[in-house]
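FIELD: query
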Amino acid sequence: MAPFIRVIEQFAVALYAACLIGVIWSIRAIWLAWHERKNTLFLLEREEASARIGRGLLSVLACLGLGAVVFVLTRFVAPALPIAEAPTPTPPGPLITLTPTNTPFPTPTLETTPTPEPSLDTSVTPVDTLPAVTPEPTTPPAPPAACPDPNVQITAPHDGDAFSGPFQIFGTANIPNFGFYKFVLNGPWTQYQDRTAGDVVRAPVSDSYLGTFDPAALLAAPGAYRFSLVVVDNVGNEAPHCSIAVQFLPPTPAPP
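FIELD: result
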């Protein structure tokens, strides 16, 4: 019944117009029949004109009744019908696909201190007169911090964790003039090039849930990967990345 009323409500204007045309046509037919009955001299023609007048009156009443029904349905019945609401879809996890990115992962460069080559002395010097040479130790530079910006942090998972299925990422992505954040992978499956994992997220997060990643597409090329959190401000500037090392392992086959 509700769909029928919705159709009537949708075509109410056309139905009103049809009723109006029907009333005008019926009144015209009544007027012609009345005029004919008034001017005719034959009883049979008067009876026929009277019958047309009666049919015209019935037609007028029918059109007015149809218009009244449409008015009641559209003004009182249709607004009381419940509105069908479409089910709200559940948004998928923000990280599913891998797409190329133009932000390469910064490769740390290690500065090495050249060791002076010993010079060859052809002169013979007594052993007891040679001075003792103490080599100076060379201290390698400290590697750069994995997460130098406190506003760009991954608190879980931890550096070195291994996964063979979906896992959740927690941390902070909330820099001044925040624009969006994303995750970037670098490893065997990406041919050791940075690729964006999933869609960007445009809501800042402070010490909470950042997203979920499913490594199913990477299990054909398991191994060590660099997993990075990249946060970009509203003019396109990237904050220092937060990067951790993770292992993706092939799923363990079920025992026979």
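FIELD: remark
The chain is about 30% helix and 25% strand.
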